[in-house]
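Good morning C.,

I know you're traveling, so I'll keep this short. The sequence:
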Amino acid sequence: MSPVTESPIKPNPRGGGETCAETGIGVFFSKIVKLGEVRINGMVERLQLSHQIRENVYCLFQQILNQWTSLFFNRHIDRINTSCCYGVAKISQLNLTFREIIYNYRKQLQCKLQVFRNIFVDWSSTRRKTQLAKQ
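The tokens, ready to paste straight into the viewer:
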């Protein structure tokens, strides 16, 4: 059996001090990072953005995955990528609108219109913040 299919709490037979669950999660995250990188490269090429902008978008994507993983819950990876492109464009003061980003996203092979037609909003965290603010 591979470490990914072993018992989650069993130590990874390959060593490293990780459990099989931690190894499996690491493999999963590395695949998300690779897919994100491929999709970001395609989007940046289509938008004809600089190498530095591409690096900034990729770093932002990685930072969100590492520090705010919950933003990926119930959201498509392309939605995260297009939002990263828009955020970096605004910070870099590029003349690039979200409409232009979506227009170019629609030209990509993996485009799915439901990515931007059905948007998940976690209202529970918003309600908690509102309740805390009232206290």
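Safe travels,
E.
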